[in-house]
Amino acid sequence: MAQANLLTPPSTISPSTALALSQKAPPILSSTPISSLPWPLSLLFSRESPETWTIHENLFFAALRTGDDKSARQILTRLTTRFGDTNERIIALRGIYEEALAKNPGELEKVFQSYEKILKEDPTNFSIRKRRVAVLKSLGRTADAVTALTVLLENSPTDAEAWAELGDLYAQQGAWAQAVYCLEEVLLVTPNAWSAHAQIATLHYLTVPSTLTTLSHSLRHFGRAIELNDSYLRGFYGLKLVTKKIIPLLSSPESKRNHNTDDDDSPPLKLETVKKLEELATSKLAEIVRQYASGKKGWTGYDEAEVIAARELLDRDGKVER
Amino acid sequence: MAQPVVQTIHRDPALFWWILLPITVVMVLTGILRHYAMILLQSAPKKQALPQIRQQRSLVRGINLRANANVLSPISFQARKAYMVSAYQEGKFLADPEGRGKPRPNPMSDPAAMEGIMGMMKGNMAMMVPQTLIMGWINAFFSGFVIMKLPFPLTPQFKSMLQSGVGTRDLDVRWVSSLSWYFLTLFGLQPVYNFILGSNNSANQVTQQMGQMNPGAGMMGPEQDPDKLFLNEAENLEVMEHRWILEGVEDRLLAKFAI
Predict the structure, then answer these.
(1) Which member of A157, A191, A265 has the closest CB to residue B58?
(2) For the segment A148-191, what is each residue's pLDDT rounded down to a tens digit?
(3) A15-22 vs A50-65: helix axis angle to the nearest 10?
(4) Highest taxon of the source (chain B) (predicted)?
(5) First-to-final CA distance of chain B
(6) pLDDT tens digits for A25-49?
(7) Any idea where the domains of chain A sit in the sequence?
(8) Do B57 and A226 touch (CB under 8 A)?
(9) Which residues pair with B175 in a beta bridge?
């Protein structure tokens, strides 16, 4: 795996990577990007660039994650002196810092109160709104978090991040239809995100009661995710699960009877096609597992846990093609 | 007719040191100065109030729906369309529901709009003042000098461009006068500024003017009536044709991986 750097950290940071990132703190903290010369000279000789501050911010998150609160405090002070106390982003970072340091629900509650105060002064601060939702979530007040998110989305309905979060919350509560709706909104903002397609497919798959309609939606979304990224492990994994569930439904004679009464809006799936898709998913998963195990170049980027899960799925199936 | 005689003009080498170089240096420095002056003059973008944000983003949501509708299944698309269209037509997302249907106020009386205009004026001033000063300076001190010779021949059409301020009819086009040198640097220094200040600078007036062609490039300029935009978008949604991209994806997949 490539060395993670602070400027462009990976989207999901494993604990070991986070530790490696936060250990880069001392050299960065020992050199100051703002030059100490008096005003006109400081303009000419500063080594500061936009990247400097991106690095600082990422280091801040890594430090908080690994419990290096002292470094985090230093970075926060530095960012505050550079960008001022009232910068929206700085306010949010300070909030994150306080949240991370809160030891019990009572302290978290205090952070929450401070967010309320900030929002009263400036209702347009969306990062603080999001932090507020995060605090509600960690306090376990899911229903309040949902309400807060719906208010946020009422005011800013193009925020894919917030929609995805709301979808998650609904899914936790088992409100599948609402969760699907939220993920559809995410898709409307980012129509080619295969992860969003896979997520919506998962939701369709998990929907209870599961009908042929939801399953075929799930299958199609997984299919679209694979179409967009043809080495997407999660897509193939899901495709295999869904097809295995659909095949008996399609084979049974009552499915044909049911079909017309259902509020199905999509053309029905053909049994033949689904079977072929199942074979395709199996062979693809087997290939990924095999290539990953042999450590071939270009195949090692998969998450190990996902590959193990895929191998288990194949083993359970009995048809091991390794 | 005899071949045209190659004109030779003996120039004082001091011309280079005392005219060509000063003009160039002054032009570069003014550009840099203007860049920093623009940064100082720029007022921070004004914060929008919550209802305005809501109004704008709701419109964007409709546009997103129209642009990316093919990810939705027909049923959920119909449901969304019905909701959005009715909400747009009722003006649910308007920042100012009472002001619906009233004519827009005169932008001159609106302080927010005035601020935008003032910003533009400031930018214009930062451009005009140094330009006028330098032009006057060059006219006063350096006009009428022939300061360099281009190493390549040119057609006579370039005469007015390269020899402004020198009133000789028979002079070869390759000679460049000081005033023309000023104009050449004025329009040609953009790459130099890019090199010194980075590509996103505001040193050159030409790029400045281009930026000002459409000041309210955003979707909701102050002069547009949001209600009209919403009704327009509702109409667009009504007439749009929906195609589901997930339809037949299973066959496409099989065809793709069959190879």
Answers:
(1) A157
(2) 999 999 888 889 999 999 999 999 998 999 999 999 999 999 98
(3) 120
(4) Eukaryota
(5) 77
(6) 888 777 776 666 666 666 666 667 7
(7) 197-322
(8) no
(9) B149
